[in-house]
Amino acid sequence: MDFKQAIIENAWGGFSVDYGLLHLQLATPFAVMIVLFIMIYALNKLLFQPVLRTLDNRSDAITKSQQSVIQVSEEVESLKQEFQQKLDAIRTEALHLRNTEHEKGLAERESMILEERQTLENELEKNIAELEGEIKSTKTFFSKLNKELSASISRQLLN
Q: Considering the entire predicted model, what is its pTM?
């Protein structure tokens, strides 16, 4: 038995099969499985769990951001509605004030027109009274003139 064969047979103990380049012993698959389990455990602790933790943290951050966006958009919507209500109230108040002032202006204009009309009517009545007085005085003057003229004509005719 050569040195290589002795090491193969005695390395792990137990049953061994030699297929030329492939030396298979019963203990080799168990050793490979143990090494694989150790590697899986080490990779899990060192690589996969931190990556999964990072992905979970990222997912939580995205969820929080989405909730924050939803909350902010709700606040914006409520502020927008509140602003719209205030704007509508101000517009209503402005229209009310405009209409009130317009009505006041119309009433003031009507009162000024009535005052001016009353003043003009008083002036008209005064002028009519003056004209009536002048007409009476003119009639009186013409009647005197007519009498004088009649008397003058009758004197001329009688003379």
A: 0.45
